[in-house]
Amino acid sequence: MKIIEATLFALKIPFTESFSHSLKSRTFSDSIVVRIKAADGTIGYGEAVARPYVTGETVESCLKFMADRIWTKIVQIDYSQAEKDIKWLFDISQTIPTENLGESIIYNAAKAGFELALIDCFLKSQNLSLSAILPPQRNSVIYSGVITASSIEKAVKNAKSFKLFGLKHIKVKITGEDDILRIGSIREALGSEISLRIDGNAIYNLDTAIAICQDLAKFQIDVAEQLIQPTKPKILAQLKSQTTIPQMVDESLITLKDAESLIAAKACDFFNLRISKCGGIAQTIKIAQLAQTAGIKLQLGCQVGETAILSAVGRHLAAWLDNLIFVEGSYGTLLLSEDLSRESIHFGNGGKANLLRQPGFGIEVQDQILAKYACETIRLF
Amino acid sequence: MDTRVLVESRYAEQLKFFESSELFHLVESGLGDNKFYDDFIANLCQSHLKSPQILAFLYAVAPPSVVRFIQYNMLEELGLDAEGICHPDLLRNLAIAVGFDRDRIEQIEAGSQSELHRMCSEPLLYGTLKELGLSVLLEVSSFEWMLSRLAGRIGQALQQHLKLSSENLKWFSHHSEVDIRHAEEGLDSVVNYVNHYGFNSDDLETILDITFRENVFIKRYFGEIALAKETNILT
């Protein structure tokens, strides 16, 4: 089946409150939604989140790559029907170009946006759910709360809200300023039962990272995520060997090759997978499979500001993946002032969210919401 | 801090932000264009059309010391009290008076129903109904508190700038300054509810923070995008 048209929506959905970490403060979602139409009239939706400090993509460069490189290629392909086989996901992914322009620019988000749209479209065309290919291993998914790098007073208020919501896992963004006071205050507010992890977004060097892990260990930190800048795996291995807190990589892990190097160097205990960062479902699965073989534990993370589309895909993956310890995302209207799906995607009490069973990714995207928040729309024929 | 003082201070913060917003100024000054006033009235109607249903939920979770007040409010909204004026009908009359066509009125009714649908279908973040009930009671009574102070001014502005009659603006006069007693009783209800269910001060403050993390008046009356602009989330 051929794809006959695509529309790219560059969105600007306001947050309900600002979200900050050490690299960036955000007040709105700038996701790109890809809406494609197949020859049989079926519509599919995908989502890309361009992050310069992750894959080197900006919204502008991502849109350009999508229009100039991806659309021109996929519009020529006559795709086979969806199959209940993970290989079909890999085959779809193979048809979508990406480009590695060296160390810092990889068009993974652009690729993910189109991959998701194609998979959603072809699954819906066959009235199949993604869960037919990725059968759930659990009945629900338990999400973590994330505390933004705001003032300590605000961070403690967030911690109390999450405790009231019954969340079992909480991640805190740390910035290198008042980390001990911040984590100590949050731990005090949460009590000792709730799992706490930290995320440095690469703000430390090796020495300060080792020091902060030593200082924070007394607060029962389960994982430290990407404390230092993406660097040689052997430096990450040094950090891992010199701290008692398990180490997770995020910005250091974009490609399958990154995963292989990190595993070879025994550089970390956890991988943070993110669907947009990793280039879609297929590439995320390949990295997860590699991790499983190497005994690396997994977190399925998200990009701040993801809409219901990436949240829904994340839900399917989280229900299916082995060795998955932590899950992030599905914040929906807890962060966005309005989300794209008709049904609410956000998790409930305890961070628990039900599985999605409807065709495609299991959500109904509302075109009027896309139109309402689109600051740029590109139609491709 | 004393529960009543704490809750009232949050209502006052919400009201102050709303009253000093550019949007409220536009309503009062007459500087808004026709679309601005139409959208404001449509949002206001949509926000309050299902008030009896919301009060019915509160009636179900209200402790004995609060139930009579909620019951009185609910019957009053439905027009089943001595006065016999159905408040949603006052809003429908207002919508007709400003010249909304059948499509627009149906859109408002559907929007109001859809909000109830959302409330019922959304995963619950709170662990129990007592917490959800408190959050709903806080928002409902904050509107009563705000309307008791500002409804008269809003009604007057609409009369002056849209040339609406007093008859068409009855909903505002029902909720205006004369209704201060009502708003005070709303505060009493919150205090009694908090005491009955034994909320500790930490949880009460957290629920206040969650309920009023955004300005509920701007959000309901002017929409999400306007709120985001007003709070510099979207510039």
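qc> Residues 3-230 of chain B form a domain with the Heme Oxygenase; Chain A fold (CATH 1.20.910.10).
qc> done
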